[in-house]
């Protein structure tokens, strides 16, 4: 009984120590430099946003937006309100649907317009967009 | 993107030019005119010309290495097509794979970034940068894969000018160039020394090209490119983070500390920056 208790205790202590060490290892115990490439992949989202903003500046995209009766400045403001994760998922969806297609320019335009119209409650293409009306 | 291999048959060096001319003549006959307004979404000058790109006559099968040598010699390097071929050419395939074009440029310490449309292609030429393009000079069912270097274009004369591995410059009408480039999936490659930035490409694409230099251990070139990028995007900490890492990899701890401190002053809360800065300080 005593021995069994001791063993249980020992196992518990060993396990919790391991757990603590494992979590700390991620934040503390670092023997080498963290790579640039991983950081770019992790933090590139703010630039995904500027990419989308850049697409909104395109003449053909603006013309489509204006034709729908939307003020492009309002479209930009709405895009700025999306979270990084939402921006990332738009781009992921674009990439998926663009794979193998030669008409990237057209599809991009369609995506940007759909994004704007989604936000304005005219369409519901992206599943995370919140309708403002 | 086709993992295709290019280049002509060894004994066809002579026939090649003839075939080219035949193919070009035939294709030109049925080509739809190139619609500049539909194909471009940015304004580019009516004509542009990159001076001083050398014409290098390619050795058999070496249009890939020859193209890279032309672009790198234009930038001041004295590299030869044989030097590049040692890094890029696949003898068994009788050509140079697209990925090896990119990789060999990076292993030679150059910024290498692909582009895939006319906006970017013509913007680079207008900025004074030659662009390597992957073309099928034949037909879909009978491909003649080829790499050439676009050095100029002129909408008024309806001409794209290429240094194409022959003695003379190759001149193609836009519609014909478009067909040959479309069959190469619009694959283009900008190769620049790391102290110059391409006119096309987003900040992230250029950052990734710089990080790729680190991956092939071209740390000095990577450091130069990170500095060049930091001058262009001074508010972005990733350039200084990369600069710190590239300097660290070269054993320059003080330089690394300086760059990482700069990154931290721009982005105080990023754990990667803090961790690397702490690591460098612990070694100083």
Automatic annotation (TrEMBL), chain A:
<keyword id="KW-0812">Transmembrane</keyword>
<dbReference type="InterPro" id="IPR046735">
    <property type="entry name" value="PA2779-like"/>
</dbReference>
<dbReference type="InterPro" id="IPR016924">
    <property type="entry name" value="UCP029543"/>
</dbReference>
<protein>
    <recommendedName>
        <fullName>PA2779 family protein</fullName>
    </recommendedName>
</protein>
<dbReference type="Pfam" id="PF20332">
    <property type="entry name" value="DUF6627"/>
</dbReference>
<keyword id="KW-0472">Membrane</keyword>
<keyword id="KW-1133">Transmembrane helix</keyword>
<feature type="transmembrane region" description="Helical">
    <location>
        <begin position="103"/>
        <end position="126"/>
    </location>
</feature>
UniProtKB/TrEMBL annotation, chain B:
<dbReference type="InterPro" id="IPR039563">
    <property type="entry name" value="Peptidase_C39_single_dom"/>
</dbReference>
<dbReference type="InterPro" id="IPR039564">
    <property type="entry name" value="Peptidase_C39-like"/>
</dbReference>
<dbReference type="Pfam" id="PF13529">
    <property type="entry name" value="Peptidase_C39_2"/>
</dbReference>
<dbReference type="Pfam" id="PF14559">
    <property type="entry name" value="TPR_19"/>
</dbReference>
<feature type="domain" description="Peptidase C39-like">
    <location>
        <begin position="52"/>
        <end position="162"/>
    </location>
</feature>
<protein>
    <submittedName>
        <fullName>Tetratricopeptide repeat protein</fullName>
    </submittedName>
</protein>
<feature type="transmembrane region" description="Helical">
    <location>
        <begin position="14"/>
        <end position="34"/>
    </location>
</feature>
<keyword id="KW-0472">Membrane</keyword>
<dbReference type="InterPro" id="IPR011990">
    <property type="entry name" value="TPR-like_helical_dom_sf"/>
</dbReference>
<keyword id="KW-1133">Transmembrane helix</keyword>
<keyword id="KW-0812">Transmembrane</keyword>
């Amino acid at each position: 009984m005593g021995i069994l208790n001791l063993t249980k205790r020992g196992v518990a202590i060993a396990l919790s120590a391991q757990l603590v060490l494992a979590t700390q290892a991620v934040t503390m115990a670092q023997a080498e430099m963290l790579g640039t490439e991983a950081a770019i992949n992790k933090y590139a989202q703010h630039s995904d946003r500027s990419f989308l903003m850049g697409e909104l500046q395109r003449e053909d995209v603006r013309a489509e937006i204006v034709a729908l009766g939307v003020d492009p400045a309002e479209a930009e403001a709405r895009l700025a309100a999306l979270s990084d994760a939402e921006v990332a998922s738009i781009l992921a969806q674009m990439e998926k649907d663009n794979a193998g297609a030669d008409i990237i320019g057209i599809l991009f335009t369609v995506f940007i317009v759909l994004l704007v119209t989604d936000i304005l409650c005219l369409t519901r293409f992206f599943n995370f967009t919140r309708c403002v009306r | 993107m086709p993992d295709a291999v290019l280049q002509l048959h060894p004994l066809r060096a002579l026939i090649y030019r003839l075939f080219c001319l035949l193919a070009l003549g035939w294709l030109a006959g049925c080509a739809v005119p190139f619609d500049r307004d539909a194909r471009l979404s940015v304004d580019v000058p009516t004509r542009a010309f990159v001076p001083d790109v050398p014409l290098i006559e390619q050795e058999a099968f070496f249009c890939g290495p020859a193209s890279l040598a032309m672009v790198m010699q234009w930038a001041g390097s004295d590299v030869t097509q044989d030097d590049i071929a040692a890094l890029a050419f696949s003898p068994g395939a009788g050509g140079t794979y697209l990925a090896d074009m990119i990789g060999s440029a990076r292993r030679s310490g150059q910024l290498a970034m692909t582009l895939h449309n006319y906006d970017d292609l013509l913007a680079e030429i207008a900025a004074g940068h030659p662009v390597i393009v992957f073309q099928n000079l034949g037909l879909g069912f009978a491909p003649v894969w080829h790499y050439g270097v676009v050095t100029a274009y002129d909408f008024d004369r309806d001409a794209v000018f290429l240094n194409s591995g022959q003695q003379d410059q190759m001149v193609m009408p836009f519609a014909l160039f478009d067909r040959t480039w479309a069959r190469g999936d619009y694959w283009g490659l900008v190769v620049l020394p790391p102290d110059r930035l391409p006119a096309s490409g987003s900040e992230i694409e250029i950052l990734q090209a710089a990080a790729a230099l680190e991956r092939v251990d071209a740390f000095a070139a990577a450091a130069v490119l990170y500095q060049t990028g930091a001058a262009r995007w001074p508010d972005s900490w990733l350039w200084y983070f990369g600069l710190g890492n590239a300097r660290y990899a070269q054993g320059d701890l003080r330089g690394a500390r300086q760059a990482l401190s700069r990154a931290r002053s721009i982005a105080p809360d990023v754990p990667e920056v803090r961790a690397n800065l702490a690591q460098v300080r612990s070694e100083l």
